[in-house]
Design goal:
The complex is a heterodimer of chains A (389) and B (74).
Chain A lengths: L3 E2 L11 H13 L10 H20 L8 E4 L2 H12 L5 E4 L5 H10 L5 E4 L21 E7 L11 H10 L4 E4 L11 H4 L3 E5 L11 E5 L40 H17 L3 H18 L4 E4 L10 E6 L4 H12 L1 E2 L1 E3 L4 H6 L7 E5 L6 H16 L6
Parallel strand pairs in A: 1-11, 3-4, 3-5, 5-6, 6-7
Antiparallel strand pairs in A: 2-8, 7-8, 9-10, 10-13, 12-13
Chain B lengths: L2 E5 L3 H13 L4 E5 L10 E6 L3 H10 L6 E4 L3
Antiparallel strand pairs in B: 1-3, 1-4, 2-3
The chains are: A alpha/beta (389), B alpha+beta (74).
Amino acid sequence: MTVIYMDNAATSWPKPAEVSAAMIKTMEEAGGNAGRGGHRFAVAAGEILYQVRETVAAFFGSDDPFRVTFTANATESINLILKGYLKQGDHVLVSPLEHNAVMRPLQFLSQQNIQWSVLPAGKDGRINPDLIEPTIRQNTRLFVICHESNVNGVIQPLHEISEIAHSYQIPVLADCSQSAGSIPIAIDSEGIDFLAFTGHKSLLGPVGTGGIVWGNHVDVNQIFPLKQGGTGSASDRYVQPDFLPDKFESGTLNTVGLAGLKAGIDWINRNQQNQVYLKKGELFREFLNEIRSIRRVHVFCAEKIENQGFVFSLTIDGIDNGFAAQWLDEEKGILSRVGLHCAPLAHRFLHSFPAGTIRFAASPFTTSQDFEACIEAVKILAENTTTLH
Amino acid sequence: MKEFVLLVYTSSHAIGIEKKLKNLGVPCKLSSIPRNLSSDCGICVRFDETGLKTVEDLVKTLPFDIQEIVALES
């Protein structure tokens, strides 16, 4: 049975062949530890990391490769910013569709009297910029916005939100876990101060890669590093360096994985102009419309199609989500994602808590045949809810 | 010909500077830091006097500080 992988919001699969090739090449030809020593392998590893910084910075419209900080994933990036920037007594405004990568650190920080509240939004969780201002408090010090929801694919109006936040001198942290690589993002024009990304989703890189792009106006002296340790620099001192990129990058970096991330981004850059890649958007919209037309199926997606990313989820009347997802896998080879998607806040807002939903997420490698197979399978499930039990 | 090293605070900066200098046509290379100049475990950029003016001009435009430019004893 052919596998139809529709769990790209968890991690993308397959990766371009260039990703694993770059990783193997790095292991074989640049096996040193970047920044530690001056022999050719160490320098080669350092040069690879610099190229990745350049690639990531350019991809997000930044002109300074050193304002890219590498982490293991978006969760680490978000933890770094929340714990390094917020202070006792601060208040944070979040979107209603935040992932636990945001909510759990915020809940942890509530012990330090750091409070959070949810921004006003429409039924699909898309923030209404007209209603933001009354929610800003005297001690509001940060907006956290999940750029593209990992539950219903809603894309937030980042630019409008940032304009309001900045008029109160409040910075914006954008969680671009889903959107990076899927939607064009220019850090400055979107008004993002802290851009958190992961490498293994729409950027098509391997797991264990991610980072932060710091907006040009962010004073990194105001951010405490999440970890301290060896950087290969200022080695005669016990004090953590205060310059980028070393300030936030203690410990050996994942050079092999980051080389793979660069290959993934290079693939996207090469294929963005490619008709097949662009076609994904049209195909996905048709797919979504078809699924929405199936009786007994409830789709969780953006109210307006122009605000929709490449993720949505659904439930089917009269059938358990877990059973449906297992049937899709075992009978049709369709790999979907069932549950709360680590986003209980989003599911509560969308009234799908605690049962959650079944999520479908496409990638550039999803074909029209894959979409058709999913539509047919969901139709069978919806039409046979009693007999399939 | 007189040789110099550009000392920076981190290897990442050395790699970035070397790339910029090569793009500007300045002959240079990355090398281990002479131990009498720094206790860091990284690398520096080595160049000769033909590139000195370009290096000094470039340094003024960088978004980060360098340590210093040191003439190597021949």
